[in-house]
Structures are given as C-alpha cells and as structure tokens.
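Technical note accompanying the year-one report. For the benefit of new consortium partners, we illustrate the data format agreed upon in the data management plan: each record pairs a sequence with a structure-token string. No post-processing was applied to the example shown here.
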Amino acid sequence: MDYDIKKGWMKNIKGDLLPNIMKEVFGNVECHDGKFISSYGVMAKIGVKIISEVSMNIETENISELHTKYSGEALDEAVIDSKRKLNIFVERATGFNVKARKRRIQEKAKKGML
C-alpha cells in the first residue's frame, strides 16, 4: 500500500534514518534492492520502499502458519501488538498519525484517486 509522506518529512527518513527507525520499532532490518525488509510478530515480512519525496510503499505479509503458532487469545494479542507496532512505524516514517492517514485516504477516495 502506498502512503503519503508529510511535506518536509523526508529529512527525517533520508539515508540511514528510515532503516534505523525500522530497527528501533521492529528490532531488525535488512536492505535488498533498495527496499528495507523487516519482520515482527504475526508479520513475516514488512517491506518498505521510498517511491518519492511524498510517497512510500509499505507491504506486509503475515506468517503462513499463523493459526498453528498462535491460538485463541494469544493470536488476538499478537495481531493487536503487530498492528500497533506497524502503526507506530508508519507514523514515524510518514509524519502522519492514524487519523490523518485515514482522512487523507477518504479525501482521495472522494476524488476518485484510489
């Protein structure tokens, strides 16, 4: 999914800053072909690529054996924790909190830009 980057926010994620944020939030990061790759909780892969000064792409893949690794309440907690960490990362990487991202997506949808 593509995310908007706040105007002037690039200075906060240029160079080693974005992978450092990923390492702080998820505990790990690797670089492959200009894309930063991490994993955390139920997310087997979190791929991040800066597209432009105003846009980045973030893709996630859940672990395939999700229901064998977690069950019941443990699964719920793992999903919530993983989603929380992803939201923390996206806010630090884009400069927009959840409310602002939701509002921007709704505005784009109204304009037919999605």
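Partners are asked to follow this layout when depositing records. The CA atoms of residues 5 and 54 lie 5 Å apart.
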